[in-house]
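Sample intake sheet
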Amino acid sequence: MKLSDLGENRVVAALTRALALGADVRVGAGDDCAVIGRPRDARWQLLKTDAVIEGVHFLPDADPRRIGWKALCRALSDIAAMGGTPQHALITLAAPPSTDFARVRGIYAGLRKAARRFGVSIVGGETARSPGPLFLNVALTGTVERTRCILRSGGRAGDALYVTGHLGGSLAGRHLDFIPCLAEARWLTANFKIHAMMDLSDGLAADLPRLATASRCGFTLDESLLPKTKGCTPAQALADGEDYELLFALAPRAAAALEVAWKQHFPSLALTRIGSLITQSKTKNRQSKTPDGHDHFRQR
């Protein structure tokens, strides 16, 4: 059986099912970050690793500074999804020996720019030879208060579902310039009881079912409400992927207050209610014609 026969979700589930976990592991594989700490610690540690690969996550002629920016910001977006604050990063770069050194310096310029903006210390890493293509891996740590750590699994039937920003258009270059929603996530967890949250990396069509499944819920989605990037179709908003916006669930009674306060604090970033979590047995999920999101092991 090949990876393409299984698809990414089944591959990850099979590989991580029997992993040994120590007593200090609050959350292992399956959420945006691993969470480490004792049950009553005031703060928990967040761990995340992410990779960008030439030909998969960026094209060979992409601006190296944008590649570096994206590489670190992808991991930062996962820290945001847990409600956390980033701390330290390790960078692994593998490239063919024929790679122009100026390209590598440009990648690190992008990494440094993102690190400065979001308060990350790049403390080391690894360089290695690759027969091709070039790839970059980021291992990132962070912290989060125990009371503000948000998982994918906390959603409840009846919860309102929201997304930040606009969806679709990553293929036009948005995936190289996005701003991770760290400030927005910290504000949300400080001011509202967020039940579940994740970042949108593989597209709403792939990531919303993951959040609902983790929360043991079904979901309804009103595709007419999708906040589409200008020029995008509903299908692109659902399936393009690499939006790096937040998807979260909270009690519907808090929805009106959230929308008013959001406009005051983040007037330039859209917030859209797109549906609800529902009892799993009553699910009316996406129609079969709705496109799937990104899957690393299946051709789109």
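Comment: The chain has eight helices and eleven strands. Helices lie at 3-6, 8-16, 64-81, 101-118, 182-191, 204-214, 234-239, 255-265.
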